Amino acid sequence: MPKITEIFLDCDNTLVLSEELAFEACADLANEILEKHNIADRYTGEQLIKDFVGQNFRGMMISLQSKYHFEMAKDELEHYVTQEEDQVIAKLEARAQPCVGATEVLEKLYASKAYGLAVVSSSALRRVRASIKKVHQDQFFDEDKVFSAASSLPKPTSKPDPAIYLHALEYVKKTAAETVAVEDSKSGALSAIRAGIPVIGYVGSYKGEEMQKEMASRLTDLGVKTIMTHWSQFEKCMADVENSPTSPSRQTSL
Which of these, 29, 46, 74, 208, is most buried using a 10 Å CB contact count? Predict the structure, then answer.
């Protein structure tokens, strides 16, 4: 197996505890959209996290349209996407916190110069930059190595589509076997796996031991190489991946 020289890191609830804040704003807008289209169901932020974690807002709204059999005009969707960005960024700039131990690991990796570091997220670029800046992690990433499935591609998409990982690989001029991804969600892990990239599954941001065990099982079933419950285990997890004789399987569905 080629030597790993690049680490791709998801942002939301992998580096920064942002999902709960973001889904508060998403729920308000999702409910406004459902009401506008005469649909009785309503969501809390917690319910949205359960159903759509790992997807960006655009992806969530596409999933909602499919679930409830309605259609949004393109300009209507874009209006809400921009509104969601603004509301989420305001919450992040006020209240975002780093995932426990993540900043310390980034500091060591950055100082070691052993790996290239990049953020690979589904979220809009403005939101990702706001998140890592708020928790002072922006210092570890070159400005052009923060990638967004919502903003960095010719056609916006969301994980589990592998497009953003394939784009990042092409940009950094590395093969999938020379990289590793750190992901906390099924959609994020599947995005990397579909791109051929081995994955470290991070479950430390899930509340409670039972939920962490459940997510660890789901991620392992997808083909994630190793599970990390705390960032202090990162070095061991990297060794697990680097010593693994097989490449990740290419799963096709959640």
Answer: 29
